[in-house]
Amino acid sequence: MVAALTDEEIIEEAVRIVDAARERGVVLRILGAIAIRIHSKGLEEFHKRLGRLGSAERSFTDIDLVAYSSQRGDVRKLMEKELSFNISRQFLLLYGKERLVYYHPQNLYHVDIFFDKLAFSHDIPFGKLGKGRLELDYPTITVTDLLLEKLQIHQINEKDIKDIIVLLKAHELGSDDNDMINVNYLSQLLGDDWGFWMDATENLKKTLVFAKRYRDESILSDSDLEEIEAKIGKLLEILETCPKTKRWQKRAKQGTKKKYWRDVEELYR
């Protein structure tokens, strides 16, 4: 039986793959909890207190990446020929246009690679090679997109809420993607999509409820809660007052009586 990798070893593996891609001119970026961990340097103890790193159970068992579809052939060459990963042929036949799944040569972990966007409960677009959002950060997607990745979940769970708390603790709100949460981009994207806006605002409210509970359980300090509360309050204010497109307004009139999210199988979470 192959020994499981530690969280830190999984993180190192993710960075190794992205570095190898960069050397070959391939744009790959890390998603999800691993990316949040990488993007929250200096908050290791905070991360551990929340049970999202260094706990008895491993936090990370696979690696999620995103690339541009225009480089799909280059991605496959990198993963299969140069890094010797094994591809899931069945998954390739069924979903290869949107996503590829690879297995480590020694079956230590698997790698999911998405293309152009994340299509879960709601869509997070990354644009096209040369002028897309993947080039804005390295080795992960931007902090803003990491936050959106969590806020888009219709049935959010506690581990995702903890990730939101870490992101908010580690980063300031700002007007660009330079290691901060870009409220201008959040407003632009969510101001055009009422369903996404709805889940994002509800998830921010849920995060605040959990943050208060964690303070009561002495997981967060009073100052931690004060900081998280202030940032969530500001985000909710921005999302409430940001310009809304005609598309947003038209969908808002239908409200919650009509389904406003996409059901996502566990495979796609």
Describe this structure in words.
- The chain is an alpha/beta fold.
- The chain has one domain.
- It is about 50% helix and about 10% strand.
- It has eleven helices and nine strands.
- A hairpin with a 3-residue loop joins β6 and β7.
- α6 packs antiparallel against α7.
- The mean pLDDT is about 95.
Features:
269 residues; five-stranded mixed sheet; 11 helices
Describe what is shown at a glance:
With about 270 residues, the protein is α/β, with parallel strands linked by helices. It is built from eleven helices and nine strands.
H and E order: HEHHEHEHEEEEHHEEHHHH
Average residue-wise pLDDT: 93
Helix content bin: 40-55%
Overall, the morphology is: globular
* Major sheet attributes: 5 strands, mixed
> What's the total helix number?
11
Q: Strands of the biggest beta sheet: in what spatial order?
A: 1-2-5-4-3
Structural class: alpha/beta
Portion in beta strands: 5-15%
Report the uncertain regions.
none
Output the radius of gyration.
19 Å
For the secondary structure, the number of strands is: 9
Distance between the termini: 27 Å
The structural domain count equals: 1
What is the fold's blueprint, element by element?
Blueprint: H1 7-23, E1 28-30, H2 32-38, H3 44-49, E2 62-67, H4 72-82, E3 86-87, H5 89-95, E4 99-103, E5 110-115, E6 117-119, E7 123-125, H6 143-151, H7 158-170, E8 173-174, E9 181-182, H8 183-190, H9 194-216, H10 222-241, H11 246-254
Parallel strand pairs: 2-5, 8-9
Antiparallel strand pairs: 1-2, 3-4, 4-5, 6-7
